[in-house]
Amino acid sequence: MKENSKKNQIKYFDKINSRLVFIEQKADMNYWDNLWQNKSKNIRYKKRLPKHNPYLNTTKKYLSPGNIILEGGCGLAENSHNFKLAGYNPIALDYAEKTILFLKEHAPQVNPIIGDVTDLDLDDESIHGYWSFGVIEHFYEGYAPISMEAKRVIKKGGYFFVTFPHMSKLRKLKAFFNFYPIWSEEMGKESFYQFALDKKSVIKHCSSLGFVLQETQDLGGFLGLVNEIKFGRRLRKSMNNSNNIIVRIIRKILDTITSTFSSHITLLVFKKISIK
């Protein structure tokens, strides 16, 4: 999941498509390479699986060890690393060339490859699962090419796991009461960063391709809350930087109880039933 909450970020409401438009810095190849290069200085690929990881736990419900999992838009491929530790065969794909070179040197176990999620260099029905962590929201022209490629490369009976920032109840409430400035196409897309998408629209689109929804999970309730309230970033920073066990427990509780109201992202799990 790629999250962003910088001070200069501006959110607009796109009434026509019922989504938020985040304006900040264009999320192009150079942006991601620079971001991941900075974060790579502190990354450590652990030898043990993390406890209570929602993505790994979800994967285990649908896929078996030995299955091939593509992570499209992998960044530093921490999730692919976890898949490898759990016995899966990951393929970590990204179009950020410097990032892939870093992975080839420091995390070859994730099988890193340079590629385009809209035009995958993979055979038809060649993978068992496809994880898309916070990728589809960064495409201003839409995510249809990504989902269509996912359908092509996933085996019949395989799974498509996709996460993205979404229109939570809190965001919908703020949009209803006009807390966001209104977006128009005339504003241009030069500084477009991402969307917060309408969950129902994504489900409808994927269903039209022959995917069947298996489950949904709303995640990041605390993050979604502090990103939408005044002084929220300050609260988030203080709680994130605290080593106090009580503060950490409080944040965990807040994250759980606010997930259905203010979740920053949603996770959708689809099963491919059609090969047409």
% residues in beta strands:
15-25%
Residue ranges: pLDDT <50 for 5 or more in a row? 1-5
Cross-sheet strand order for the largest sheet: 5-4-3-6-7-10-9
Pattern of helices and strands = EEHHEHEHEEHEHEHEHHHHE
Helix content: 25-40%
Secondary-structure class: alpha/beta
Structural domain count: 2
CATH architecture of the largest domain: 3-Layer(aba) Sandwich
Largest sheet, in brief, is: 7 strands, mixed
Whole-number radius of gyration? 18 Å
| DSSP summary, beta strand count | 10
The 3D shape can be described as globular
Cα separation of the termini: 30 Å
Q: What's the tally of helices?
A: 11
Overall pLDDT metric: 91
List the helices and strands and how they pair.
Elements lengths: L9 E5 L4 E5 L5 H12 L13 H9 L5 E5 L5 H8 L3 E6 L2 H10 L5 E3 L12 E7 L10 H10 E12 L3 H8 L15 E5 L2 H10 L2 E9 L1 H6 L5 H9 L4 H13 L1 H4 L2 E8 L4
Parallel strand pairs: 3-4, 3-6, 4-5, 6-7
Antiparallel strand pairs: 1-2, 2-8, 7-10, 9-10
Helix pairs in contact: 1-4
Outline the structure in words.
- α1 runs parallel beside α4 (97-106).
- The chain has helices spanning 29-40, 54-62, 78-85, 97-106, 144-153, 169-176, 199-208, 221-226, 232-240, 245-257, 259-262; strands at residues 10-14, 19-23, 68-72, 89-94, 112-114, 127-133, 154-165, 192-196, 211-219, 265-272.
- It is of the alpha/beta class and 276 residues long.
- The chain is globular and about 50 Å long.
- It has a seven-stranded mixed β-sheet, sandwiched between helices. Strands 1-2-8 form a three-stranded antiparallel β-sheet, with no helix packed on it.
- It has two domains: 10-168 and 175-219 and 265-272, Rossmann fold (3-Layer(aba) Sandwich); 221-257, no CATH class.
- It contains eleven helices and ten strands.
